[in-house]
Amino acid sequence: MKKIIFSIVPFLFFLLFQTGCTSKMTPTVAKNADLSTNYKNIKTYSWTSDIDNIPNDQLFIGMNGIYIFNNESARKMIKDAIQYELDSRGYKKVKGDNGDMKVSFSVLEREGRLKTTNGYVTLSSGEKVRTDDNVSYTDVKPGTLIINLIDSKQKVQIWQGFASGILQPDNLRDQSKVRQAVSSIFSKFQHNNHSNM
């Protein structure tokens, strides 16, 4: 009996350790969405006009003397990954800023808090509203990637997705890791343009 207990106890500690490590490594992925958006009218996208501008107020220089998150090569990889996700959903990229929706993104270099919404409450009049019960805040880590989709005509944000701390400086040298980060965010985007074609 003692042999069984001595062999089970280390196994249980191992499982507990693995569970703890896994939950800490899994990034928080969330979205905010305008539920009233009619995606049937959205067929094209374009980048916001400032998409290639590196934010001056968010420049952290690493030990090797280069920008940690907001640098040209990292931003290009993120743009390519976002374009891949939207193209695979049937949206067509157009030149300039003439798309039905505009796309932007940012990478947080500091920890912070982001607001998340959990849908709407429908009033008896049929109007959909958000209440304090539908809003929460999520603590996020440096390396958080935020992707915004904006309705070009209404000039309102229709969808936002983010993943906390998903991009680390080492990840920004590997296109496949950047694609995985962007893909994890777009897993929350449940729309496509395939049926509208």
**Series of H and E elements:** HEEHEEEEEEEEH
The CATH topology name reads Double Stranded RNA Binding Domain
Largest sheet: 6 strands, mixed
CATH architecture: 2-Layer Sandwich
End-to-end gap = 67 Å
Q: How many DSSP helices?
A: 3
Q: What topology, given as strand order, has the largest sheet?
A: 1-10-9-4-2-3
The CATH class name reads Alpha Beta
The count of DSSP E runs of length 2 or more, i.e. the number of strands, is 10
Helix-strand makeup class:
alpha+beta
Gyration radius from CA atoms, angstroms: 21 Å
Query: Which stretches of 5+ consecutive residues score pLDDT under 50?
Result: 1-24, 59-67
Percentage of residues in strands: 25-35%
Structural shape: globular
The overall number of domains is 1
Rounded mean pLDDT is 74
Explain what you see:
This protein has 197 residues and is α+β, with helices and mostly antiparallel strands. It contains 3 helices and 10 strands. It is globular. The protein has a single domain, classed as 2-Layer Sandwich (Double Stranded RNA Binding Domain).
In short:
With 197 residues, this protein is of the alpha+beta class.
Task: Describe the SSE topology.
Layout: H1 2-25, E1 29-33, E2 44-47, H2 72-88, E3 92-93, E4 101-108, E5 112-117, E6 121-122, E7 128-129, E8 135-140, E9 144-151, E10 156-163, H3 175-186
Parallel strand pairs: 2-3, 2-4
Antiparallel strand pairs: 1-10, 4-9, 5-8, 6-7, 9-10
Helix pairs in contact: 2-3
